[in-house]
Amino acid sequence: MVSSRQAWTQARTPAQPLTPKELFATAFWANSTRLVAKMAAALERDDEATRYRELARKIADAFVAAYVDEQGRIQGDTQACYATALEIGILDGLREKRAIEHLLAAVRTHDGRLSTGIHGTKRLLLALSANGQANLAYKIAMNPEFPSYRHMIDCGATTIWERFDGWRKDLGFNPDIMNDFSHVGLSGAGEWIWRMIVGLNPDESQPGYKHFVIHPRPVSGLSSVKARYESVRGEFRVAWEIDRDKFTLDVLIPPNTTASVYVPSAHPESILESGKPALQSPGVDGLPPVEGTAGFRIAAGHYRFESAVAGLAP
What we know:
By secondary structure, the protein is α+β, with helices and mostly antiparallel strands. The protein folds into two domains: about 15-190, Glycosyltransferase (Alpha/alpha barrel); about 200-310, Maltose phosphorylase, domain 3 (Sandwich), CATH 2.60.420. The chain is built from nine helices and 13 strands. The mean pLDDT is about 90.
């Protein structure tokens, strides 16, 4: 008779290549140092901000010299190593472009499924969405096959688990230690939902929530999103909906705050705000387009943008 532990051992997928620990450590050191530099700048401690920015640059240069070749291939060749370097922003232009290609290849190697853990999963979703692969990120997260967030949901999860295989319909509970069913580790997907799917991001160049960037990345298979955020300056609301080839974006910006809004559109010149051409609407000014969107700077208030999109109907 096979025990539960033996059954789990037999059913597990082969061990995946590991991202080198020293690579993770160096990348996180660079990221932490950049965060300190940003905090120092926000506090107007300019000498410290300059010192930590320079240190962060040196760490990033050392990372590239130690772990990245001229073709953008990173030591370990895993989804996590590429996603981490891309999301933190360590690579230069050419290496970054090639690293994106290697990341996509690493996803294909695993048949469109993730091979990341608590550090790499959110960065995989963020890096893909930020580099024109929002549909792929959503498909990975919602893959019905293990490992994925959809797999957790299909198994009855109402919270985020510590392990993607914390419970399986054919085997029951995973007998290994560290099998929490309400755990912070993999909940970084929430950041991806806010920053990429909802598209709500504070502008780091203007601390104190003075200015927000609203850049939703709608995905095929998802028809609507609604979210609100209580900031120190008041409530933000973002809601978008896709109906056939029509994209509608509702935003509420609190008093004494501004936002840059990027509206997906196949025809930017035809975007409406509250039923009139967007640039004729009070409080709306134009911004340069980004990633196939039309950009607008808006003052506090409620706005309703409408645009034509293609290929996103659920």
